[in-house]
Each structure stands twice: as structure tokens, then as C-alpha cells.
# Entry
Amino acid sequence: MNYRKIPNTDLDVSTVALGTWAMGNDFWGDIDDQESIDAIQASIDAGINFIDTAPAYGAGHAEKVVAKAIEGKRDKIIIATKTGVIRTKTEFIRDLSPANIQKDMEESLRRLKTDFIDLYYIHWPDTNTPLEDSVNTLIKLKAQGKFRHLAVSNFTTELMEQIQGMTDIVCLQPNYSMVNRKIEEQIVPYCEENELGLVTYGTLAGSLLTGKHRELPDFAENDNRGRFYNYYRQDIWPQLQGLLSLMDSIAEIHSCTLAQVAIAWASQQNGITSVLVGAKNAKQANANAQASEVALNDFELQEIDSYLRNELRETIF
# Structure
């Protein structure tokens, strides 16, 4: 496993991190808790030291699963969790009010069975709450030792500029993959210029880049990939299959899987600190970790870039 430092912190995080949204067991289809625990423990054994979760993942369920999996190993793990999104039975509600931030923090600490959070994210912007009110509450919680470093997720450059006028943040978590490269034009340069880490999610594009789906899938009712991601569409399906064919040839050269090609690609892009990848079982977790050893060469990176720019530019940029 390779490690990189989040700028302006002492956090050396694995370049492949474990994302736990699916472990909330309420948005990506049925997930077995014991298999989730096995996946977390296999990730740790394989060198992954960075686990990302949130209260919104199964209304706290994912945090409880993480706590069970890391029992006795807290000192080996960098935990990231979030505030500002409430999960109900039917929706995700953005709420960065001071009361909800305080509630999120106390409940996350309790569920995770820890005294502090290493990296605490604002999950999504909340247009109904003045950002200054949210930040003032977070500053107080940090002073109390509840978390070590503040970060933001799904923020624009304008919002990052605004929050940095009030307090320090150390990284951004955006959606980023081969088929979603919209952050490259403005956000990546901004983060590099301002010494902010980039911890990206959506690396496998809802399993599209694993090569699992060679025909347009019909997802189960409780599997929201087709609604959350903008890739499962008939109009671009032939071009996406062309991308998978290119990835097939690269994977064969490296004796690896398509998922490992996608993870390696994301990890090798400018400004990226760590890439979040989900795992439903120990086998997937081990395979994700092994992707850190896959090094795509300049020709392969250019091949992928050329294909994406020529065939999918309007979709991904």
C-alpha cells in the first residue's frame, strides 16, 4: 500500500481508502453486516488505514458497522465522518444548523465508539443555514477536541473560498472518476494552489468501471445506482462499452481487473490524495487495496484520456 499526507496535517492516508456508504444497507441494495465487517477488517489487513463514513449512510448504521470492525484497532485507523445530512426513510435532508451539527457529532462519537474524529467533513452545503453559523459551531467542537481536522465535501471553489475566510480546512471530497472529470478544470487547480487535499468518491462509477455491466442493467428497486449516477443511459452506452474494451486491454497487460485499472487511474491524476472505493466483502476489499500496486504508464494514461475526450467529452467534463 502507498500513503500520502493530507496537506497541513499529520495524517498519512492510504492512497486507496474504504468508503462505507453501501454498508448503511439502505441505498445500494441489500448488504450483509458481517460481510461488511469482514471487508473492513480485510482492508485494514491489506494496509488501508483510512475509513470514510457518515451519519447519512443508513441513518448511522454504517458508523455502527465500522465501530464493530475496528474494535481494538482504533489507533491504527484514520476515521473520517461527516455532518449536515439527515437520512429519513425517503430522503436526504441537508441541515447544517448548529443544533444538528452538535447532534451529529455526539451521535457519531457514540456510534463509532471513539473520543474524537480524525477528519470531519461538512457533507453537503446547506443553503438554509448561514455558513458562518455552521462554522462557528464547528470551531467550538474542534476546540473541545471532538475532531482534529475540518474538511468539506461537494463544495464549489466559491464556497471553499468563503469558508477559508472563517477557518482552516484541509481537504475536499468530490465525486471523481474516469467518467466524471468535471473537477479538473477549476477545483483541482484551486485545491493544489491552496494546499488542500483531494479525497475522491465515486471511483468505480457505481460499479460501471468494474466491467460487471456489459448490458444496460435493470437495478433492483432498493438499488439506486441508476438514479444517483448519470452513466446508466442508453444514449451513451455504446461509448461506455468502448471504454471498458480499452480498459480490458490495459488490465490484461497488467494482469489486473478493470476495477483496479479505474482505481489506479484515479489515484494517478493530478492533485489526488486518496480515492474512496466501496467493498461489499473481503474479496473486493483485498482487490481494491491491491490496486495501489498498479502503475499505469504514460501511454496508457494518454490512451484513456484521448478516448474519453473524443467519445464522452460532453458527458464527463
Notes: The chain has one domain: 3-316. The chain has a mean pLDDT of 95. The radius of gyration is 19 Å. The domain at 3-316 is CATH 3.20.20.100 (TIM Barrel).
